[in-house]
Design a protein that fits this description.
The protein is an alpha+beta fold and 103 residues long.
């Protein structure tokens, strides 16, 4: 599995971010081809001190090729173009292969 992780910094208008993200952006994300699972949170906390991020989003794909294909698709381009409508504080996008561990 391959994961895309988006870390959002504090936006200028947190209420607008939450409303737009849930009601307009996530419906676009759900149409990504090859998307296996997704999750998000606005309740980002640090173990110590203040969290450097306002929100987090994760998207899982079968592999890196599937993630890259989704991002390059017309729907993926719509998702990317929509970010300016709510993420006024900026964001960091990273991706990586997920490896299972044993406790």
């Amino acid at each position: 599995m391959h994961r895309s992780l988006v870390l959002y910094s504090e936006p200028a208008d947190p209420d607008h971010f939450r409303d737009y993200y849930v009601n307009k952006h996530l419906p676009l994300v759900m149409k990504w081809p090859g998307l296996l699972a997704w999750r998000y949170s606005f309740d980002v906390a640090a173990i110590e001190g203040e969290a450097p991020y306002f929100a987090v989003f994760e998207a899982d794909f079968a592999d890196a090729a599937a993630m890259h294909a989704a991002r390059a698709s017309p729907q993926g381009r719509r998702v990317a173009a929509d970010v300016v409508n709510y993420a006024t504080g900026g964001l960091v996008v990273i991706h990586y292969p997920v490896r299972d561990g044993i406790g």
